[in-house]
Amino acid sequence: MASTPLTVARIRADVADCLGEDPADIPVDENLVDYGLDSVRIMTLLEGWRREHAVTAGFADLAERPAIAAWAPLLGAA
Amino acid sequence: MTSLPLTSPDPASPDLTSLPLTAAQSGMWFAQALDPLSPAQNTAECLEIDGPLDAELFAAALRRVASEAEALRVVRVEDTPEGPRQYVADRIELPLTVRESGTDAEARAWMRADLAEPFDLAHGPLFRHALFRVGPDRWLWYQRIHHLVMDGYGYSLLVRRTAEVYSALVRGAGPAPGPFGTLAELVADDTAYRASPAFDADRAHWAGAFADRPQAPRLAGRGALPSRTFLRRGAQLSPEATRRLRDLAGRLRATWPDVLIAAQALYTSRVTARGDVVLGLPMMGRMGSVALRVPGMVMNVLPLRLAVSPEATFAELVRQVVLGIREARRHQRYRYEDIRRDLGLLGESRALVGPLVNVMPFDYGVDFAGAPARARNLSAGPVDDLTVNIHDRADGRGLHIDHDGNPALYDDGDLAAHQDRFLHLVDRLTDTDPHLPLAVHGMATGPERALVLEEFNRTDRAVPPTTLIGPIEAQAARTPDATALVTGDTVLTYGQLNTRANRLARHLRSLGAGPGAVVAVSVPRSAELVVTLLAVLKAGAAYLPLDPDYPAPRLTYMLQDAAPVCAVTDRAGRLPDGTGTELVVLEGLDVSAQPWTNPPRALTPAHPAYVIYTSGSTGRPKGVVVPHRAVDNRLRWMQHAYGLTAGDRVLQKTPSSFDVSVWEFFWPLREGAALVVAEPGGHKDPVYLARTIREQAVTTCHFVPSMLQVFLAAPEAAGCGAVLRRVFCSGEALPRETARAFAHTLPDVELHNLYGPTEAAVDVTYHACDPAQAGPVPIGRPVWNTRLYVLDAALQPCPPGVPGELYLAGVQLADGYLGRPELTASRFVCDPFSPAGARMYRTGDLARWSPRGEVEYLGRTDHQVKLRGQRVELGEVEAALAARPGVDGACAVVREDRLVGYVTGDADPADVRAALARRLPEHLVPAAVVVLAEFPLSPSGKLDRRELPAPVFGGDAGARSPASPREAALVRLFAEVLQVAEAGPDDAFFDLGGTSLLAVRLVARVREEFGTELTIGSLFEAPTPAALAARLETAGAAGEDALGVVLPLRTEGDRTPLFAVHPAGGLAWCYAGLAARLGPQQPVYGLQARGLTGDERLPRTLQEEAEDYARQIRGIQPHGPYRLLGWSVGGVLAHTVAVLLRRAGEEVELLALLDAFPAEQWRHRPAPEEGDALTAVLRMAGFERTGERDREDVLATLRRAGSPLAGLSGRALERIVDIVPNHARMMREHEHTAYDGDVLFFTAAAPRAEDWLTREAWRPHVTGALVNHDLDCTHPQLMRDRYLDDIAAVLAARLKELDA
């Protein structure tokens, strides 16, 4: 089944949502750990993206460089 | 950045690569080094694989993963001058066990046994695999790895990779390239961090966040050293509950771990009664780091500090958790051990965090060539206190929660209770509006709540609506000729007493006494006092006792406050003038014209029976009004519980102003028993009391525990056993030691511990002491028609075992405080657990329920203290101090059982004290008043009571010089024990601030210094140094200093002396019982450690110490044959002394070792730390350590129990705490030389924790025979009377043979 690819805007919105912040307050190129991102939240995001966007990246891939700009290519968001 | 030579080939083994440990690994290394044989650092996991598995291919996969994961190839960890290093082998033999048949249970048993094995860091690899086939298509894969090389996230990497490799091998494909990073990367990363500015910033962050060094919240109420094992209880949070949890987390814009952490914070806060809670959060510590791809040990524990109050909402608490974790995460690389070290907690062995919440959401969604697997953690590493492990295996089964506990702090039941309550709380939290105050949540589970509220309080009992006085009149009518009252030589029958009381009652009625009115009574203890109290009650009025010894201003205040219709006194001038109260003076009063019959009165059970004043925290004493109904219930219950008969005689010795006197006065008169009235002042004199009890055949009496202690110390006490049937204790906490001493001195007499404030008709709980029980003596169960509540900060009931404030409800509650509606409303509050309108009384006492439904008293929630059974509100003392001219600020504290006042300003301390003595009852007058320039303040600006200087008590030194050396010595002892700067030979002990407990200490010191038995009683009779000196003159017998190297236990006798070497604490007092048993002809000398007195340094080796003792022995007995004995460390020393004496060419005819074991048995065991040394000090005094945390606690226990050790100077005790670990160290370093003779050995043969100790270990060090005698006791019990009898019998027989 084809699924819609992720976009940077979608990633940003999802991240902001799980951090309880407004998307506008989440920069794309900063370390998200400083905004409260942790392993549980990454797992939660990843589970959702795997389900809805056929993402193949692993936990370590995302946790290694926790920033939206670094994630975009891994998550197939051009 | 500097480049460090991180890795280097090991010159000894070229195929090994050596690396330093990371800081994270070093923490584990130090923990293991503390106890090298401990398996606590084992981590383990079991994967349950459902499906076919090829064991060969699985082993190949494991081999491949081991070759990829460097951490698994660490084969040695050792300390080097540059710090600990790890050595990684190129290849290793895979430690794999495969069992293709067997049951699940067998496999689990194998795992449990394996998990109990420690790894040897010198001989790796530091992991182990096992594969069990437990069903046709079911396999268990077990891995155990030392925590030094692996953490929880590391396991998930290993498992994923193993599944990947295995699946590829099954497909016949080559596995993808190895994904793991190297240990060198971890080390480099760690080194770089520790050299970075972030490291300094993180350190500053944590140092600032915990600068005030908060106390760690302990669910068990105390901490403990880590154990070698842990207890575990597992539970599954159902998928439905997990869904609700995630749901709530989503609504609160948090994650489910945040919610669980907040729940644990709430639970911890309530259970520990702390608003400031620090939890420990294990963190994987890999975010944004190369460590994400390295299986290894990286995790860290971060402290999370939360403020929890009943008023806040759960949503707010969760928000606090989210923000707190966010903040902590920014500094997450800084090691927990480093935070503790920076705060100075390491040195004090103090924890920073309470329970750990360990969330492991690691991705385990793996399969082995299609066979699904489920992971179960078996051990997550050492458990210091309590760890809540939460595993999310992403397998749709919900969360798995393991509660791990340190077995030194929790048993299985405790752990289960904490887990059940936690799950219950989570359940309620996910089902309740999170915006409600936290106060709506109780910590108890439903069944626990029913237990503590209903089951433990099932006390309903129908009682007739009578009064305090009615049953007394009925009894008088039934047995008019029975003896009612005995005082001195006077005896009154019930008829006579009733007649006298009736006539006085009628007179009082004529003065306005009647139901609802108050009549003051100020009569010293006598028959007249009893007649007067009865008369007031017969008239229908409530009596107000006024202690004739109270100062005039106090009496004036009480008279004005209570406004009695009249005051009865024994003679004129007893009460201050000008109060306007009408006086009834018994002396010369003729009421013979009054009718002798019971007066009529419209008295109901609701009318007040008495008004008793207690100390008030605001400075004004308050009158407690107790109705008839309350005290009638109390006495009916007491009769039911203890069944007084006409043959009983009750001693009345409690002052009438103290409510214990209420049952003393009236209980016997309601039951046809006799009341024996003690002389005024007699209640303070144990010798008088013992004589009275014996001569008057008293069967029932009461003691405040501290006075009971003094009483039991009097030799006359034992003689009371023949007549006494029961003794009641109340008024203050009853120490177990006192209960034990009671059982020893009066074995056939019952001891009952009662508890209750004046506000609830004397007592509301009761407990029969059982000599077989240990631990704190409970205050017990509620009496009839009484309910006890132990409530937390939110007024929710505490489950059993959890401390809270004690509230009382039921028929015995007082009406309140006379004329103080606001104060009454603040202490007698609405009872939410009973029908509307019911009240409960807030005691201010800390307590907890035992699982059996008894309450244990734990202390106070406020500044109220008890001194010798009397309630003292420090606030009242402070208010009185502050009211003096020239006093700016004031505070009062109790130090070593004495009340001390501190003031600032320019007042003269002696004047202030004298002024208070004129205004306050004796127990409220400070023993000393100290003037300070300013009060010491804590960093938060509060008064720091601990920093207040010790007071200097002063005596009348100027009077005269001591007349003899003995007098001089006693003057010195007085000054020392009382801590007064100077004392004169004619200063009375009790005038200088002496208390009964200090008296115990003085007697112990006199015994030490003069070798003379002196009783507490003699101190009452001869209270000054001069008088005591005269008494000692006649008693004779002088001894040496009891702390000297040689302790002459018996110097006379014509046999060859026996030399007994001290155990670890350095004192040889323990051999006194042995000396007594060996008879008058056998001289016995103890050898005691240097350093107990003066500034002597402690020995460095046992050899040096033994050489010293050999010299001392030869100073007393220049040549052999020698007889030597030693218990514990003393045995090792005695053996060494024997070797030295033999080397000098002397004969040694006896070497007796009492449960002593040679050095090599101890060498590899960890030496005790101060905590253990304190345990040893307590054991020397014959106690098992219970709740004592530090030196102060230990000293307090010794003092409370009146132990002679407490009579040691603080300095000597301090030295013992140094001497114990010094001996432990020297023991471990000692090298034995063989002794060419026989050994007489005594084994404490009860099972012991140190089951590896064996006397056989002496064989290499003894060439002769080793003759053993087993004693059925533990090591510390060897010196108890029972076992000493056996030891002495064997020894005496042997000595007799030698003498022959």
UniProtKB/TrEMBL annotation, chain A:
Gene3D superfamilies per record: ACP-like (1.10.1200.10)
Entry superkingdom: Bacteria
Pfam families for the chain: PP-binding
Ranges where the Carrier domain occurs: 2-78
InterPro entries attached to this UniProt entry: ACP-like_sf, PP-bd_ACP
Descriptive protein name: Carrier domain-containing protein
Automatic annotation (TrEMBL), chain B:
Keyword Membrane: no
Gene3D superfamilies (UniProt xref): 3.30.300.30, 3.40.50.980, alpha/beta hydrolase (3.40.50.1820), Chloramphenicol acetyltransferase-like domain (3.30.559.10), Luciferase, Domain 3 (2.30.38.10), Nonribosomal peptide synthetase, condensation domain (3.30.559.30)
Database matches in InterPro entries: AA_adenyl_dom, AB_hydrolase_fold, ACP-like_sf, AMP-bd_C, AMP-bd_C_sf, AMP-binding_CS, AMP-dep_synth/lig_dom, CAT-like_dom_sf
SMART domains assigned: PKS_PP, PKS_TE
PROSITE patterns recorded: AMP_BINDING, CARRIER
Keywords from the UniProt entry: Phosphopantetheine, Phosphoprotein
Cofactor(s) the protein needs: pantetheine 4'-phosphate
Lineage top rank: taxon: Bacteria
Residue ranges of every copy of the Carrier domain listed in the record: 961-1036
Protein name: Carrier domain-containing protein
Organism: Streptomyces hyderabadensis
